[in-house]
Every structure is written in C-alpha cells, then in structure tokens.
Amino acid sequence: MNSTHISRRTVLQSVGGGALAASAAAHTGSLAGGPLAPWTPGTLDIHHISTGRGNATLIVCPDGTSMMVDAGATYASLEYTVAPIPDGSRRPGEWIGRYAKRHLQAAGHGEIDYFVLTHFHGDHMGETTAGSPPSKDHDYLLTGVTDVEAVVPIRRYIDRCYPTYDYPIPQNDPWTGNYRKFIASQVKRGRSVERVRVGSARQIALQHKPRSYPDFVVRNLAANGEVWTGVNEESRHLFPEIASLKPADYPSENMCSLALRLSYGPFDYFTGGDLTCGTQYGEAPWQDIETPVAQIAGPVEVAVMDHHGVTGASGPGFIRALRPRVFVLFAWDSAHPCMDTLNAMMGTRLNTGPRDIFSTAMKQETRIANRQVADMKSQNGHVVVRVAPGGKTYHVFITDNADESDRVIAQFGPYTCA
Ligand SMILES: [Zn+2]
C-alpha cells in the first residue's frame, strides 16, 4: 500500500497523524484520532447512532435536508443487553437529540426536517416507564423520539399508520399511546404528520436546494405489507385481508415495518426497520415480507440489517437481493446477531462479493456464543457512512460512543459504488 491510496480494508486506529491518516484526510476531511469533520454541501452523511438502547439514524442529505429514522429507547434488562451508551446519566432519546443537534448545527441547520418511524416498538420510538418524566405541557412522557424533539425541533413526521392507527389492529398499547399523544400535540403546534405513501419518491424531498441534486431520491419501498412494484409510484398488497386471518396469524408489528431506499447517483442505501422473513415453518409464506422488499430495493451499496440480525430476519432472500458491500447492524442484545444470520451474511453462497459488517455495539456474551462476530470490521461505536458529492464513492467512519467527542477511531474506504 502506498501513502496516496487507502485500501478499502485499511483501518486507522486511534493513533492520529502519519501518512495514512493524512491521506485519508485528503479524501474525507477527517483524521483518525481527531473529531469527525463537519458535513459539507454535496455530501450525504448517514449516522447510525450507538446508544445500546435501540435504533436511531440521522441522515444529512446533500443540500442539508435532515432526516431521522427511528429514535429508540428500550429499558430492557441489563442481563440481556449492553449498558446504556455512553452512560445512564441521560435517557437514550436525550443522547440521540444531542447527537443530532451538534451535527446539524455544524451543518448550519437547527431542525430535523423529517422524522420517519419504521414501526411502533420501543427500541424504535421509545418505551415509557414509571420514571419517565412528563413533557413541558404534561401532554405525554419523555422517551425516544419525544426526548429528541425536546432537544431539536422536528418539522414533519411520517409513520405507517397516521391518523387512524388501526392496522392490523388498533394501536393502543401504552408506548404507542404515548407516541400518539405526542403526535397529537405536534399537530396542534402546526407540525406536519403523514402516513407513508408506499411507492412515492416525492413524499420525502430535499427542502433546501432540490434542483442542485436531481439524482438524490428517497423511495418509500414498503409498509403494512404494501410494497412498491418498481413501476412509477405503484404498489401492491402482499398480506392477506385481515378479515381472512385468525388473530394469531395477523401480521406482526415487525412485518408491518416501513422501508426506504436512499439513492444518490450510483450510491444506494436500504433501511427496513424490523422486517422479517420467518414463515411459521412454511405455513404462512406471505409472512416472508423482507424478501420481496429487498428484491425491489436491491442491489445496494449499504444495508441496515433487518431486525438486528435476529433469526427469522436479514435472511437469505434479503442478502441475495441486496448484496451490500457494507452491512450495518444495530445491536445491543445478546441475540444481536444470531449465529445463523451472521453465518449467512459472512458466507459466499448468497453474496459472492466482498462485504464488511459494522455493529453499533456488542454484548460480550454474544462474542463468546457467536465466534464469527470477531470477523466484523467493527463491533462498537457510531457508524457513519459518508458519501462523496455525486455518490460515486463513500467511506465508513467509526466514531467513539464513550462520550460526545465524535472522535474517529477507525476509518474504512474509499468504497467505490457499483
Ligand atoms: Zn427493533
């Protein structure tokens, strides 16, 4: 390797300085050991925020339009999960909000333009507990996305069910109830809330300079078993009519997840919440919803693993259709990922090309039970995908999740888009 080229497998540990780091800085504006350089116009940044408590992704689009996908806050037992990241002195949603605020301010913006919720589970929107404090107006409790909004204003919301929240059954559990109270309060304050329009490439649009980036597109791929056909903005329903099913066979909340594809020139990115592929041992083939969604999305450069890599998700159809060069895993539980899922991702039967896997966190017990975890490129830290202007190349930065320094501890790339 020479000093002017960083191979896609190069890792710059937190040493700072040196020819390799200097060369990487020339490509990306960031030095290993120093803070991640701020977003600059034309760049697409995708931050997979590591809290050990759920999913949260901050996206800064080429014109500065910002989007957050999910803002989880689970309070599951530490017996099964990693400890809160960076620590328990703040709630997960507060850490996520503060992360978003400092990165958006660096980009010259003070608001989140879109919040997109994939589905109504606590590790994606926030759980409430007996200790959750009320909001300022006592309309709802602070957790997850409601904590984020208290730190950074959010202009628009998109979820899978607004305004009826009745598919496949009325969504009235306490956590979704808290989210619905929050949404009602946001509507009262003049914020926009919409149900996802599956198939649309216009519902999520650049807000600042759309004409400067005509090749940046966010496509709504799926929600509630409705999947884009690949033609114009048409979609089709893949779940049976609810009335034809026994309640035990209704689509699960995970199966109803909303999925998106972001494209910037030749760069494509997939995120699909907790979509699953399990079929009740073949009895309900329609329950493999992630395969048709991945088939209409793929192939892509970067994919978030469905449902944290748990068995019955991120399955063979998903891997074969997306064939990403980079997988990102939101992990915090001892089942993230499961052995069979990781084995399929690492193997060459479904995906013959090279691929790198990055996880936001890893439970120590998982490393012992699942030896292939050692072959991941990174097991802990915020995973930042930074796509160069035009979308032809990208880097992956791992930044420190122990504090709010955003110190780069490893760097991978440049990767070239197919
Ligand atoms: Zn989840």
TrEMBL record:
Q: Which SUPFAM superfamilies match?
A: Metallo-hydrolase/oxidoreductase (SSF56281)
What PROSITE patterns does the annotation carry?
Answer: TAT (PS51318)
Q: Which residues form a coiled coil?
A: none
Q: Which domain of life is it from?
A: Bacteria
- Give the transmembrane ranges: none
For this protein, the record's InterPro entries field holds:
Competence_DNA_uptake, RibonucZ/Hydroxyglut_hydro, TAT_signal
- What is the protein named? MBL fold metallo-hydrolase
Species whose genome carries this gene:
Rhizomicrobium electricum
